[in-house]
Amino acid sequence: MKGYTGKILFVNLSTGEIHDEMVPEHVYEMLLSGVGLGAYVLYNRIPAGADPLGPENILGFVSGLLTGTPSFVTGRWMAVCKSPLTGGWGDANCGGNLSPAIKKCGYDGIFFSGISKEPVYLYVDNEGAELRPATHIWGQDAISTEETLIQENSKKKKPAVAVIGTSGEKLSLISGISNDGGRIAARSGVGAVMGSKRLKAVVLAGTKAIGCHDPQTMKTIS
User: Fold this and answer.
1) How far is CA 86 from the centre of its chain?
2) Mapping DSSP to helix (H, G, I), strand (E, B) and coil, where does residue 31 land?
3) Is residue 121 classed as helix, strand or coil in its secondary structure?
4) Rounded CA separation 140/87 (Å)
5) Which of 15, 114, 130, 159 is buried most deeply by CB count within 10 Å?
6) Would you write out the chain's pLDDT as a tens digit for each of its 222 residues?
7) Taking phi first (over 0 means left), then psi (-120 to 50 degrees means alpha), and beta for anything else, what does residue 65 get?
8) What is the model's pTM?
């Protein structure tokens, strides 16, 4: 089954650099994408002793291996990071439309390092990815922010949006990341990590197909 894209997106918020990376196939064979892919990236890239609210921490949005295939109840996404609550591994999962939206942009995961000088959000579609100013929505709650970004970025299609509200901006250690009008990836302080990076939102508007080697067999199994 071809349930993975083989590609992840890296964004350095300190420098503004954005680039793609290919993931070796053996990583998928061992870890099956999703939270396993997140753990692989964070373990290999976050240095020992890194401050969870500092630039060396990495925040990832990852989609599961079976997302977008005809399998049953597999459309959740994971936020992963070094947790500011525990100082160890942190993750939070959530439903809605964000998980397939990650794959429709051509990625299995989107990862952020560094800290932006000003509030920004990431926009991704079939043409590529770019950081955009978010000063006009910094200070807004999660629901109004999502509505604003959907209005601003719906010229081609309605995007999927993940956002933080004011608690994430203020680095509350119980803040989460919201999508689809109030679904929340709520554990591990992931919203505080997103706020520490001055990353207000992730807006995904890709339309790429999600591959599956044998859709009929997946339907039968499900």
Assistant:
1) 21
2) helix
3) strand
4) 28
5) 159
6) 455 668 999 999 999 999 999 999 999 899 988 999 999 999 999 999 999 999 999 999 999 888 888 888 788 999 999 999 999 999 999 999 999 999 999 999 999 999 999 999 999 999 999 999 999 999 999 999 999 999 999 987 899 999 999 999 999 999 999 999 999 999 999 999 999 999 999 999 999 988 888 888 888 888
7) alpha
8) 0.94
